[in-house]
Amino acid sequence: MCRKSDASGNPVFPRTNSDRRFFSVRMGKTRNRKIIAAAALILSAGTMSCEKRQREPESREALGTVCSVNLYESGTESKYGKIFARLDEIDALFNLSSPASDISRVNAARGAPVEVAPDFIKVLSEALEIARVTEGAFNPALGSVTELWRNAKIHTDRIPSKTEIRNALAHADFRKIRLDEQAGTVCMGDAEAKLDLNAIAKGFAADSIAEILAQGNVKGATVNLGGHIYVFGTKKDRSPWKLGIKNPNAPEGIPAVSISGLQDTAVVTSGIYDGFFTNGSGDKNAGGVFFHHIIDPETGFPADNGILSMTVVCRNAAAADALGTAFFVMGKEKSFAMMGEGAFDPVAGGRPLAVSITNDARISASRGLEGYIGVVLNDYTISFR
């Protein structure tokens, strides 16, 4: 399928007024939380082949979450099977809970070179490039710090001390990581350093599924990997997709905004409402302290810059995934300034577009989304940059 872009490399959003429906999906990055997105898409009859077709979306556990794929009239058991087999392959590389995964073996090697799969090299290489361009706002070497927060959430409900954070940050320099593509090895360069690729692995998985869909002549599909969304092709009537972005103040309710005209595109949101825990009373509204999961690599604590959610729209799902985290950490002004400079073109395969929602009830969106984004809730005002 031809992937269209304009002269600047931006995704092309075909205009349509034929379908006003959209489906609201959970688009926050999730950790240790299982999510199945609701889809309000109407199916219609299609041509049957000799292989049994599946009209219902397939959902299975992988990558630490629930992964949902809907192939609509193109769905067959073999196609779903191939997709989820690929997800299992990727999970085997990046699962921090499995001692046998490539990432766990690298983290356990205390800085020694470890032979890893080509897919692992590919993902880490892109992660390091995004880390370089964002000046560490996205940091794949932050594993020693994120491990402290995971343990706090799972085991102690006690936030890490400043001393623990400071000691962990001393071993979070992504510039020390060495990749040897010819030998197929990764070396952390620091015995105490650890990788955390959670903020890019699901995006890579979405890109991998898109390749399978293109090879399988699928006309249209939606992919939801625990809130990491990829829309492929078009709907049956050849109109593009439309998604809703959560209201971060009421994530279970009506979306704050909608984005239309989406085709062959990833939409990934980093938001404060997922992957959190509340220390103290257990209720943030009754004296507890609220901690979300997006860690600022400079401080080692959850980023606190007024952003409630940051959504990235990009052809490259891995880039959208990592940049969502980076932009959230960088803040609104610096993120939109860097996008305007075109700094991410070599990484993203086209300039990424973004939507930020801040705690002053303002929505800021890339100029390239003008005409395709609409405010659903009157609580917010929108401007384009």
Automatic annotation (TrEMBL):
Required cofactor(s): Mg(2+)
Tagged with keyword Metal-binding: yes
Enzyme class, spelled out: transferase
Keywords associated with the record: FAD, Flavoprotein, Lipoprotein, Magnesium, Metal-binding, Transferase
Catalytic activity: L-threonyl-[protein] + FAD = FMN-L-threonyl-[protein] + AMP + H(+)
GO molecular function, one term: transferase activity
EC number, as in UniProt: 2.7.1.180
Name the record gives this protein: FAD:protein FMN transferase
Organism for this UniProt entry: Treponema saccharophilum DSM 2985
